[in-house]
Write a structure and sequence with these properties.
Number of helices: 13
Number of strands: 0
Helix content: over 70%
Radius of gyration: 21 Å
């Protein structure tokens, strides 16, 4: 029987991989500055109004774009909680510590630039936004992996989460109907993709040294996945709007996030699993088949709902 590696053994074994990927990331990462992505002139125009209270008419964003921007920003706001989680599971020594610090610093830029953009453009009610931030950050981030917390579960989760966030940011930029917002969110999405690659490569290396153990962590994350913003004010309402309008839905989660990562790791082609791993792989395959059915069912319901709304608008216009 193959023995599971301890947290310390995993961290030690994976140090060379972490070092290579920290160096790769630093070489690939592009330096950018939040202030370069904010239309400050719009802020001066609103300031000239003499501190008038927020009026929804000031926003150029649709309801869908507002919901997506707020959800994405509040998700980024919980960075202190994410930092704690990753520092506890990765350690603060050597390449691991370098990555934790670098990742935290880069992620912090995302919240800075999104908030500056929304406040300066009056894209959303700044008072309501601040109130939601206070609630969400006070609640903090409770890891969805719960008692399964550890390096393998952590690195599995952030691989899928970073890619999911990239998809959400990119699609949010498109619905904002503002080239400045789109450019800003594409810049953030590019960062998220590089972060995903770091975690994906670490987890891929873990699959090579501890196949069964790592697959169990991956399967647990996939079958229990939650976006890190779960629990924020209006999360359910905003999530429904985002799914309904193609910003992030079950089909995108399955085809743009889950399957690309599983294929990269060759989960269903590998031949190094024992009977234990084979059982886990079968359970994962069954879950993915069910997720496919759920995605199809959601799409059918969404299409019917959008068709009813379109007919309603036609009647109102005639």
């Amino acid at each position: 029987m193959v023995r599971d590696l301890t947290q310390l053994e995993l961290l030690t074994e994976l140090v060379p991989v972490a070092e290579d990927n920290v160096n790769r990331h630093i070489a690939a990462a592009k330096e950018w500055h939040p202030h370069d992505y904010v239309p400050w002139d719009e802020g001066r125009n609103f300031a000239a109004l003499g501190g008038v209270d927020y009026d929804p008419e000031q926003s150029k964003l649709s309801d869908v774009a507002k919901a997506a921007m707020i959800t994405n920003l509040l998700t980024e706001d919980n960075l202190p909680s994410y930092h704690r989680e990753i520092a506890e599971n990765f350690s603060r020594d050597g390449a691991w510590g370098t990555w934790v610090g670098r990742w935290t610093a880069e992620e912090n830029r995302h919240g800075i630039v999104m908030r500056d953009y929304l406040v300066v453009t009056r894209g959303v009610d700044p008072v309501a936004l601040e109130q939601a931030r206070m609630i969400h950050m006070t609640n903090g981030f409770a890891s969805p992996i719960g008692s399964h917390s550890g390096l393998l579960h952590s690195v599995s989760y952030v691989t899928f989460q970073e890619l999911a966030t990239r998809v959400s940011h990119r699609n949010t930029g498109k619905v904002c109907d503002d080239p400045i917002a789109d450019r800003m969110l594409q810049r953030i999405a590019a960062d998220e993709n590089l972060h995903m690659m770091f975690y994906r490569n670490i987890c891929g290396a873990a699959l090579d040294i501890a196949p069964d153990q790592t697959l169990e962590a991956v399967s647990h994350i996939v079958t229990n996945f939650q976006m890190p913003g779960a629990g924020m004010p209006n999360f359910r309402r905003n999530g429904v709007l985002m799914a309904k309008h193609g910003i992030y839905d079950l089909r995108q989660h399955l085809e743009d996030v889950v399957w690309p990562v599983l294929r990269k790791w060759r989960i269903f082609e590998r031949e190094d699993f024992t009977a234990r791993g084979e059982n886990t792989r079968e359970e994962l395959a069954a879950f993915l088949e069910d997720l496919e059915r759920q995605a199809t069912k959601f799409e059918e319901m969404r299409d019917r709902s959008l068709a009813r709304e379109a007919k309603k608008l036609e009647r109102q216009a005639s």
